[in-house]
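Researcher: Please predict.
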Amino acid sequence: MISSTGNSLAKQAAALGKRARSRRESGLFLVEGPKMFEELPKDRVEQVFVTERFLEDPDHQRMVEQVDGKKVVLVTGEVLKSISDTQTPQGVAAVARQYRYSLEDIRDGGAKPLVMFLETIQDPGNLGTILRAGEAAGVTGVIMDRESADIYNPKVIRSTMGSVYRVPFLYVDELGGTVREFKGDGLRLYAAHLDGKHAYDREDYRGACGFLVGNEAKGLRRETADLADAWVRIPMKGNVESLNAAVASALLMFEAARQRRG
């Protein structure tokens, strides 16, 4: 059992939760809590840290037994807390290998791909929620610029509720160039914009399409918005000027899903 917070394995795991640089250089990320651990594909697991108390639950015991025993390490509650990104760890944390996707993975979305293009989405909770809602709405991929939040930030991971394991995503150096590539493939693009000509539910999303969503405070850059085939707005009452980026994205994605069901 590891009982010292100075243990090298524990320190390496803690760094993955606290520093984006550690995640980039190692190609690993930190997963916390029974739900996220249970949904994590076990072939991606590098190390598991678990407390004796967690293993007292037979369901938890079976969950951990799915991993090669050589990768499982018992730790004290104090050590797990030093690893965890949360104030109240839930008894288990794992180090896992990051996912690697290409543009081709996202392009291969069948006859009617639905792609989200995100520009400088900086709130981890927003990014995680967009992935979670995107999986529920049937998006085929999420593409982000490098100014967007780190998808392997523990707050993003928790917000996805497991969708990060299943929705293809990619960071690109030049979002505009990538958008043009997808347009060349026949993807019709819609920019979420306060100056949109039509309400978002008056457009046709039944074919191959994608949505451009911008920064929480500033929205899309003009040059990015101009790449869209159409600008769409979300009608609002009261004195509200704009919506949370995750809420706006969810409305757009689920409108596309509604139309496609019909």
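Model: The CA atoms of residues 99 and 165 lie 8 Å apart.
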